[in-house]
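Q: Is it fine to ask for two folds in a single conversation?
A: Yes, each is treated on its own. Send the first.
Q: Here.
A: Result:
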Amino acid sequence: MAVEDALVKTFNALTQGIPKLMLTQVAQSEKRKEAILKNCASNLTKTGFEDCDGLESHKVKTRTVLL
């Protein structure tokens, strides 16, 4: 019985940390997206054309994080 209780407590502790970790990753992903968008706007004003290659790779990373 003590072993089962210990396993349940360990499982609960591990699963409670998962949502917090995912929220942290999403927040970091959003910060990265903002940085890419600022860079795109900067490139647009400097060169007269939009250079947003990084944004497409960011979308793939975001989908991976959110799944």
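Q: Second one now.
A: Result:
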Amino acid sequence: MAVGFADTDTVFGTVREVAERWPERPFLEVLPETAAAYGISAGALSYGRLLDEVRQLQTAYQAAGYRAGSRVMLRLDSRPAFFKHWFAL
């Protein structure tokens, strides 16, 4: 059975809904090689933790003056930080 989401107008809206429904479920697994390359922790990143970190980034972007309609370019490797910043924007 398919699961429906109410706020699918944005990627963040879908991530938020999933995190609120299943905060303990893993969003992604950071492999030891990736963790070593970027100086981050290896292991699972849960949707709940992801949402907390994304909200912190949203607050930082807002404090820096970014608003809806602002243009931002992300130039990051394919790593957890990319997804966090993308969802925050």
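Q: Anything structural to flag on that second result?
A: Two points. Strands lie at 26-30, 43-46. Residues 11-88 form one domain.
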